[in-house]
Amino acid sequence: MFVELQRIHIELEEIQNRALQDSTLRVTQENLGSDIQKAMEAADPSLPRLMARVSVLEDEAQAAARADDKVRLELLVTERDSLTERFFTLQNQIVSGPEMASRVAGFQFDLQQKMLEIAPDAPELISRMRELEMVLRASIEL
Predict the structure, then answer these.
(1) Are the C-beta atoms of 114 and 19 separated by less than 8 Å?
(2) What is the pTM of this model?
(3) Residue 113 C-beta-side C-alpha neighbours within 13 Å
(4) Predicted confidence pLDDT, tens digits, the chain (142 residues)
(5) Residue ranges of the domains in the chain?
(6) DSSP string of the chain, one letter each residue
């Protein structure tokens, strides 16, 4: 089951990458990403500083791992994870707003249409992937 899920995920990722070679989709994706980033920074002006901090934390964590400093590594990873969670929470708030949610949905629809042009079986692959993910989640919860 897990192998099938991985295979489908890889296949869909390849189809998506091919779809994103379309210049219109690529520009839409870039503009959407940029606008989400700007909205996040407007909502939390400390975001650029915190993002830079994550980069520093990752470098320091690599150094701590090489030095086998488990205590320092754990502290660094905990701080990084806390900041990352903050980013994801803010991003979810931004993309859940009516205007941005509409733009994201429109982009996703256009992307799926392009994927369908490239691979007519993409909807079946997506459906099967979701089915396998649900079965996997259910087995983990047991």
Answers:
(1) yes
(2) 0.78
(3) 9
(4) 789 999 999 999 999 999 999 999 999 999 999 999 999 999 999 999 999 999 999 999 999 999 999 999 999 999 999 999 999 999 999 999 999 999 999 999 999 999 999 999 999 999 999 999 999 888 887 6
(5) 2-141
(6) -HHHHHHHHHHHHHHHHHHTTSHHHHHHHHHHHHHHHHHHHHH-TTHHHHHHHHHHHHHHHHHHHHTT-HHHHHHHHHHHHHHHHHHHHHHHHHHHSHHHHHHHHHHHHHHHHHHHHH-TTHHHHHHHHHHHHHHHHHHHH-
